[in-house]
Request: fold
Amino acid sequence: MSSDRTTTERPRVVVGISAFRSDQPVINLVRRLLDEDWPVDAVVIVDSMGSGEVERFIAEEGGPERVHYHNSPTNLGSAGNLRKRLELGAALGADFVLALNHDAVVDRSTVEALLSYTHLDRLGALYPLRFRSGKGIFDLTGTSDFAFRANGTADVPAGNLIEVRWSSSNGALYATAPLREHGLGPDPSLWMGWEDYLYGLQLHADGYRQFIVTAARTLDEYEYRPVSIAGRRMVLADKPSWYLYYSTRNMILANVYEAAHPVRALKTALWVAMMAGHVWKRKGDERRGFAASAYLQGILDGLRNRRGKWKHP
Reply:
């Protein structure tokens, strides 16, 4: 971390890293961050039921004055973890928190590109331009206020900034002002999945602006697999069945109960119907049965406004 910069030259920035059963990737990320001397002031790691390995690394190599470790005795889930990282960053006096998952493909140049636009007024978040290797596109899904399906372009989009309603939290530079001044932050009750989508919609509704910075590049190696549904070839996420539960439930919670809007509610119904094809494409009767159970439970719990952790993972 750079020591030759002062807070008068740039805003105070804290890196917030999510850790859950990913000790070595987190250690590798922190070590690279320190070795590359990123232009940030501190690092916060938020873990759940940690093994102690990350804590030992900080004591021996990271330096507790630079790297702060928070270990929750219970699993926070991705939504609660993101909220906690922003809260701890704000408590350290950060103007911005760079949110990274343990698998973030981000380097110093990406961070510097994001920081070059922190002067913008009423800023809620800056996002890197994500290249989805599984789909072969630069992701521009967040230009729409509904996450119906990934869309983008195979070519680098023109311009320096692209205004969006939301984007992935992995690599996002979040302003802490919405949280400090209005208590606005990711909703931990979603527990897992789409918390960054809902938070982006809420930032937009409160008049905060969000942009993709095209010079800030990152690689998204999300797992996908090609399928054919009703004669149409699609590329869908290749994840365990319980992902389907949270995706289905949280999309309903976000668009029907939280950022409620008739058009988004209708599109959510179409999205939920489309996901039935995803269930059908699961290989093997047993796997398909698990997926169908998770999918139907997600619909029921979404309509019943049920939140928090389900039985998996």
Summary: Residues 224-303 form one domain.
